[in-house]
């Protein structure tokens, strides 16, 4: 376990007192098969279960009686057959004791506990499930069909879990920084390997290997492509081409399931062309501008749009945009270049808690999402920042040929865009820079002891052959 027992006891106490009544079910994950049951994906525990119970074993469920304060860790002990194949492991009772949970019981008891609560007419609080095996288990327990389970999930529980997990303790920040250290090695390896003739897949394979060699996994499938303008451009067998850019967006997830998420965009020839420098410097300045804006009490919405305004100003200087900056941003014209949000919460999930519902993670009664405007509808967060949150700062500028064609054909935002000049950028690709930032009491700081080079001079120096 990452923390001592008292940390988990205290986290559950806070949750139990806030929920106040009913029973709380927190499902751990089960093994997940790749192509037949005994050939599984690397096990990944559910992040909320791990946050409250600290246990990494598959097949566990935590139950908290919010009225009486009684707690159970439920799961089946392994039998002699399993011991033959996998070796001896702790019993469920041992794990309950380690997590400070007073009671343990076999899985058959879960239905008994839930049925009793149902008969008493008590609330059964559960989080929105995202794995289909657990949806079936939940249907058996509650009678709620999987298609109705997300809406039947407990809003009180969702909001309570988000509030607790959003604010990272010092120990959690240290674990994220361990993930950042692995991310540093992954990114600097990719930058050193980046050269004409090397394939995207060779580099992506090597950087995944760095995570695996430390017993970790990548925090999401690595994005690595000369086509940075494709948001999820997965590595292809294509050799890198001189003169183009390589966008690499990857991170590590530690054994305790805390993540890093960084993006760098490197010149494949080792030096940026002037045209690349002009765009790259805007992205650097947008990234750095966000660092000056982000602090407790400031809406992430305002940080995003502050960056969008700076980007628009600078793209106007290059002649790619025109008109009044505020009007252009209000119309969403900047989304031609920057069609995603500035960043998202990060922690045990790389998009932290996204499975609980982005609307609850990133928005509130004060800041509602705008789902009607292209680009703005991708924001993962808008609400006021709090000390202890970990966010990503990830502006990007992309030249997406299909989007240029589409907006040109429809005339969308034509008063703010220079389509003739945009035509000449269709072979450019895209640039994104991403760092993970901690919101401190009076500002923010980039996480990671060593920052992966991102300023033009530093990148070019770093990529010089040894
Ligand atoms: N890799 C997805 C992201 O940066 O959010
Ligand atoms: Mn990323
Ligand atoms: Mn990210």
User: What's the N-to-C terminus distance?
Assistant: 41 Å
- Sheet with most strands: 5 strands, mixed
Major sheet strand order: 6-5-4-1-7
CATH topology of the largest domain: Creatine Amidinohydrolase
Average pLDDT reading: 97
Supply Rg. 24 Å
Provide a count of the helices.
17
Helical coverage, percent range: 40-55%
Shape: globular
Number of domains: 2
Structural class comes to alpha+beta
State the CATH architecture of the largest domain. Answer: Alpha-Beta Complex
Which CATH class of the largest domain? Answer: Alpha Beta
Number of strands: 17
Keywords for this entry:
Creatine Amidinohydrolase, 466 residues, Creatine Amidinohydrolase, Chain A, domain 1, binds glycine, 17 helices, 3-stranded antiparallel β-sheet
Characterize the structure shown:
With about 475 residues, the protein is an alpha+beta fold. It has 2 domains: about 5-165, 3-Layer(aba) Sandwich (Creatine Amidinohydrolase, Chain A, domain 1), CATH 3.40.350.10; about 170-460, Creatine Amidinohydrolase. Helix content is about 40%, strand content about 15%. The chain has helices at about 5-20, 45-55, 80-85, 90-100, 110-120, 130-140, 145-150, 155-165, 170-195, 200-215, 275-295, 300-315, 325-330, 360, 400-410, 420-425, 455-460, and strands at about 25, 35, 40, 60-65, 70-75, 105, 125, 215-220, 225, 245-250, 250-255, 260-265, 390-395, 395-400, 430, 435-440, 445. A 5-stranded mixed beta sheet has the order 6-5-4-1-7, with helices on both faces. A 3-stranded antiparallel beta sheet has the order 9-10-12, covered by helices on one side. Helix 11 runs antiparallel to helix 12 (about 300-315) and helix 12 crosses helix 13. The protein is globular. The model has no long low-confidence stretch (mean pLDDT about 95). Bound molecules: glycine (GLY) and manganese (II) ion (2 copies). One manganese (II) ion binds near residues 392, 394 and 434. Glycine binds near residues 220, 249, 261 and 394.
